[in-house]
Write a structure and sequence with these properties.
The chain is α/β, with parallel strands linked by helices. Helix content is 34%, strand content 22%.
Length: 938
Amino acid sequence: MQTSSDRHEYPSHWEADVVLRDGGTARIRPITVDDAERLVSFYEQVSDESKYYRFFAPYPRLSAKDVHRFTHHDFVDRVGLAATVGGEFIATVRYDRINADGRAASAPADEAEVAFLVQDAHQGRGVASALLEHIAAVARERDIRRFAAEVLPANTKMIKVFTDAGYQQKRHFEDGVVRLEFDLEPTDRSLAVQRAREQRAEARSVQRLLAPGSVAVIGAGRTPGGVGRSVLDNLREAGFTGRLYAVNKALQEKELDGVPAHRSVRHIAEPVDLAVVAVPAPYVPDVVAECGEHGVQGLVVVSAGYAESGPAGRERQRALVRQARTYGMRIIGPNAFGVINTSPEVRLNASLAPEMPRPGRIGLFAQSGAIGIALLSRLHRRGGGVTGVTGVSTFVSSGNRADVSGNDVLQYWYDDPDTDVALMYLESIGNPRKFTRLARRTAAAKPLVVVQGARHAAAPQGHAVRATRLPHATVSALLRQAGVIRVDTITELVDAGLLLARQPLPAGPRVAILGNSESLGLLTFDACLAEGLRPLPPLDLTTAASAEDFHRALTKALADERCDAVVVTAIPAVGETSAQDAALAKALRSASASSPAKPVLVVHVELGGLAEALSAAASTAPQAASTAPGAQAPRPAERRATVVSGPPEASPRLIPAYPAAERAVRALGEAVKYAQWRREVADPGKVPEYEDIDEKGAAEQIDELLSRGSGLTLGPEDACVLLGRYGIDVHRALPAPTPDEAAAAARTLGYPVALKTTAPHLRHRADLGGVRLDLTDEAQLRRAYTELTDLFGTPEVLRPVVQSMAPRGVDTVVRAVIDPAAGAVLSFGLAGAASELLGDTAHRLVPVTDRDASSLVRSIRTAPLLFGWRGSAPVDTVALEELMLRVSRLVDDHPEVVAVSLEPVVVAPRGLSVLGATVRLARAPVRDDLGPRTLPVV
């Protein structure tokens, strides 16, 4: 337990686990009075040179006064943070608030002097950079806006830490010392630097797990069978290129099937990079301690009995992660299926998969072991004996994903040269905000296909998930906005993955269809229309078509400038020989090579021979005759889809084949949408600057309002004033608790007016009759008032208001909300029960660019009503887009604005009118996605 220092309680929210540059982890926490001995021990391990750089003079040891000063902090004006591994300090940083004269000060002074000390053994790991991010966040929280640091010119490493951080800096040289001053307000560059460091560190941490130089399987038994022994056998049979060890405390043997055996990791003389833990959960803590003390870099925990088993297991899982991070280790699991790396330099099968998948260019991540098995099996079958290029590069099954998650694996795949396509099966997304950010960056470089399980149920018990108020459909829409190819089944996941792995992206939605079956061509045509594609009339080659006919037709279609992709439909003739099948496969392969910029897909109905011919298109493909003795040949159902491969001496052009037109076209449709997103993301638009926005005035108003209490829904006047500071004018509505006050309000506003109720059960429900429009005089107003109270109740219940009439137009709704998991989200739809019932609402992540706003208006199914449907006048969508951009700016500039609802927004042919507005405020979270790097809290 940490003891509080001078004035403030111990700030536990400053504690964080971070990934360092080399992929290891460290814990950052405040320094307290309990750390005196740790500080002294730490200082004794620092070289004299580093001490000299810190204190500008020889300083062999810390005095009692120094120890007291460096361990007693008030957590406001004096703060110290330490980076620890194994409970011991490896680096420290502190700041002291100073005034303009450089003397110790308190608020409102907003400058502090900062200084670091890093153990020599840990220099170069990025510890100081991580500490700088965290101490800067702490300082901002304590209203410190600027850091100053004095550094000796020879201390180039520390100067580089400051200059590379990306903050705006001033530097000058006085009295033999370099003085650096920099503002702590995050900049685009500092944020880019921080995220680049995050990517490199997290990618490296996964790389250490996927490409170890040595592996120890802890829990491997003497006899075949059992989890540990199965993993050991799989590693050995896959041909793991590194050192392999079997560990079991019951072993007396020196070897286990040729693998060196030990009773403990401690007894292994060489370093161990990765440990696969397959012992019962109660014994895991001892194993983790042994691994940590031996310097193991990472763990794959296949043991079960953790959060998936209930509350006690969840606490056991938290303790496991905390213990591993104490030693700087990362964990895949627990309850994991394992990891695979097919690279010839590694050949790692540290999993329960009995066979090594074919090496290829597809990265695969699955939270579920069962789904992981299914995906590996399907990719293996669908690869169908080709040259291997449609196989797997790496596979991670994370189990309960208590530590390493899909986010970490995305960081690794982003710049992995061996992975061209990423496929993910996710049952939960622990940090949707970060996942969306990483997905957007990854998708800009390579396709990312995701299927989400548990869409209509709670996440699996083993998964820690941030609470979200957003429905699944909204999260799915946001993922698509980030470039994620969202599919619904693992079959569609594989279908899309195979197409994207080796076919070019289509330039547009125009599809040519040709084949030897008119019916199959028509089915393909209909499927294209259903997917929003633009098919050309199918070309029927008739059932008498030869391989040469297919070659000629495909060559011509690919050369046609009116098409962007080609779907070939083929049914084999009854009694067709394998030679004819091979000829057709060769013809398709040769024709597709003539136009490598356009994708080609095959839809085939199998009668027994064509699939084998397609599989055997490359000379390296296994032939049917090579089936091992005693092994069963694949069943027809297992051979339904494969690929056409080019000759092995050239870079093969693989043509994916599908057993149904709908599957092929659905995969093509996803590729078309993804290609369009790639083109759009190259020019994402910009967030406009509006000169009439009063950002400072809004901040002051928000601070004043929140001084009354957090979780505040603003009254109409305050909401109108705040929105007005961002150029959003709300039509004034005056309360009308009596008929006389309603008449007075109407005289103030001027006729014609509207009378409407604001009771929660009638608000925004014009269909229920709680609104009266176009009241042109007092008599009509009083009559309408009486009708409403007679129908719905007393004025105290109805809360009626009078509002001036707005120009007629289309009623819409603009909302923004800060979701605790996904972040700030802007939503748009038409007003009314029909749109709500159909869920016809579009969403974009904040901040919204001008391109985002334009696409948002056009994304809803009822968008034609805005653009002159059935002869109606088009409305002012430009004004609507500007309104959404202003709402986005408000929410982005002020995280305290947690919800905005503008309803209705009446969009007329010229201009628009905001008739209702609700704004909710709350204290901004201490840390958000712009804060320092940190691993998820367990």
